[in-house]
Amino acid sequence: IELSESDINDVYTLGKGINKPIKVELLSFIKKRKILHNTKQLKNTKIFILNDLTELQREEQKILRQHLKYLRENTEKRCYIEGNKLIIDNKGYKATELEKFHSQAIQKEGRSQSPLQVITRTPAQEKKDINREPTAEFNNIIFNKAEASQKIYLTFGAIKKVGDIAGGAPRTRNKSQ
Known about the structure:
Blueprint: E1 8-13, E2 22-26, H1 29-37, E3 48-51, H2 55-74, E4 79-82, E5 85-88, E6 91-94, H3 95-109, H4 123-131, H5 136-148, E7 152-157, E8 171-172
Parallel strand pairs: 1-8
Antiparallel strand pairs: 1-2, 2-7, 3-7, 4-5, 5-6
């Protein structure tokens, strides 16, 4: 894939350490798709390229990983994460379902047996939230976030030679995205 400096909006490193990931903002969605499509050619190398996740997606992945870790340590069930679901014995569960099951278990037992933090809500609170009409302010926030999430980001990991991307060293900016 041909990639020139004019195709790249911004490049910067994330976090601290020797093998820190590099975030690349591309101007072309087509180039991003081509790069992601060809990532399979990097198999068995120490380089990986991932699509950048939104904040909500990162939170969901965090919840799924917490439940996966707990299940692997405390049960013999076959479990893994596939996409945005935790697969337990060939049945998929989304993060919201897992949180709901966990909060119900806490309410039944009166305590938690796992280290997962859950904010419990009463059925009356949930019913109130379900029946609530979205406000204009809420819609503006959601649509602005949706537009902002349309930016084209890729995260490159374990790249030793930072200067090899876009012909120069990236700016170092500590972002937790």
